[in-house]
Design brief:
Blueprint: H1 11-14, H2 27-41, H3 44-54, H4 56-65, H5 73-82, H6 87-98, H7 101-106
């Protein structure tokens, strides 16, 4: 890595990596990590920056390849519309994430629950 290579990232992107060694975060070396973090935690300015770096076709491929893993259902729905991702595929990803106990714990309101799932099966 060249000295100061990480300075090519805007400060608002570096701010998303408070838990990482920022000197080791560069677009060239950490593209996947940066993409994931921006999609998960980035604001509109960061999203616009990411789209300018990847383009919508590459961003669509990135999300599809990972089956939306790590993205909240609300964010997946946004990208479904913005990037013209097949709604049936997004439905599958959201259903799969709903069975993940960590997703349920972290995002209980965004994971659709089955009707009557909390009730006893008494007649």
């Amino acid at each position: 890595m060249l000295p100061n290579e990480h300075t090519s990232l805007p400060q608002f992107i570096h701010d998303l990596f408070w838990d990482a060694d920022r000197s080791q975060v560069s677009w060239e070396q950490s593209r996947d990590f940066i993409t994931r973090r921006v999609l998960m935690r980035g604001g509109w300015k960061a999203i616009q920056w990411l789209r300018s770096q990847l383009g919508d076709d590459e961003l669509r491929r990135w999300i599809i390849q990972r089956k939306g893993r790590g993205l909240e259902p609300r964010k997946l729905r946004f990208w479904q519309i913005a990037l013209h991702i097949d709604p049936a595929e997004v439905d599958k990803w959201i259903a799969a994430s709903a069975s993940n106990p960590w997703i349920q714990r972290l995002h209980p309101r965004t994971v659709q629950q089955r009707p009557n799932a909390h009730r006893d099966n008494k007649a």
